[in-house]
What we know:
four-stranded antiparallel beta sheet, six-stranded mixed beta sheet
Amino acid sequence: MKEKLLQQFIEVFGEGGEIQSYFAPGRVNLIGEHTDYNGGHVFPCALTIGTYAVARKNNDKTLRFYSTNFEQLGIITSSVDGLIKVKEDDWANYPKGVIWTLKQKGYEINQGMDVLYHGTIPNSSGLSSSASIEVLTGFILNDLFGFNIDMVQMSLFSQFAENKFIGVNCGIMDQFAIAMGKQDHAIFLDTSNLEYEYAPVKLQNAKIVIANSNKKRGLGESKYNERRSECEKALSDLQGIISIHALGELSEEEFEANKHIIADKIHAKRAKHAVYENQRTIKAVEALKANDIKEFGLLMNASHVSLRDDYEVTGIELDTLVEAAWQQTGVIGSRMTGAGFGGCTVSIVETDYVDTFIDQVGRIYEEKIGYKADFYVVDIGNGPSRI
């Protein structure tokens, strides 16, 4: 892969200068969905699929971006000065946003770069191709310009870029999971204070299988910001009688005792998901530590039901994949993952049944939806690196 991309880089940008190669993973969240902007816990892991890049500084102030995944767009150029989001720049707004953020934070970037990207994450699948590009770009800047920014801070800068430059009001989970990934471990992260611990994911005779619905989704155009706003309104109502800063601070019992104060029934449903999903995540990590993979799977299933019924972010594609998965022999648990409205599901499937699972769920999905899903048997990998 490295040699092939180096050759492509030279074909696109020409020879010369000090050229470096990099990789940053994608991520999948095992449980804890739409909790990260509600001050709750999440449990993501980095994947061995992700985004590769080849980069070098150049001798002017021009940024030149090229993606093998969007060859039809050619080289997208910009200046390091006066960076703004431009619709025509498409995917390149993500690396531009990170460069803009670092300049906003006082880091001196007075030289341009030539960067070729190659993603092995399906676009718009919900496996965080955008966050992977953001964190990777930050890692490249760190390396080429010697900024010495730690990766927790880099994840925060990447989130800032997504919030303020791209305009998607996302939480910290995606960027943090990618920046801090550790092989064979998931990250139990408290998004209210960024305290985290690595939990070994010992699936014994089981595999993580991701199913991509192939229904494209874009966070900015989806109802993601709407859901966040609904939760904020529910929180505001609750703050009238209880002293909390985030929905993630509540237990199920505290929520049930006070939910009557939430004026809008829809907002109450959204808040219920945020509270209960946070508690499910805490219980799921405890189950994993106790080697109770069956209980972990049941909590995954319950997570999907809540995302479908209380948070209403699944849709027929994701529901079809998950409900087909629940019917299969050897399935320990299955749920949608990511923001929803399309994207992917994550299932834990006993190794002996993986092939049958893919065949059967794929057949059911295509018959009902009319087009194919793609399946990936994935491993848990490390965070960004120079390769």
